[in-house]
């Protein structure tokens, strides 16, 4: 049987993913990377890499 914490996490998994996508969009806007010449895929990778670093720091 699953731990209660795992059951709760399972119930909120979609919410967490939605929130993370929202953070990506937030930082796209903050940095103003919505100009036509921008490599959006490359910019997203940079933002996501920083998000990963921040999560690693929090996990310590």
List the helices and strands and how they pair.
Elements: H1 4-30, H2 40-59
Mean pLDDT: 89
End-to-end separation: 28 Å
Q: What class, by secondary structure content?
A: mainly alpha
Which spans have pLDDT < 50 for at least 5 consecutive residues?
A: none
Q: Could you spell the SSE succession in H and E letters?
A: HH
Number of helices: 2
- The quaternary state of the protein chains shown equals single chain
Q: How much helix, percentage-wise, in residues?
A: over 70%
Strand proportion, as a percent range, falls in under 5%
Largest sheet: none
What is the number of beta strands? Answer: 0
Shape: elongated
Radius of gyration: 15 Å
What does this structure look like?
The protein contains two helices and no strands. It has 60 residues and is mostly helical.
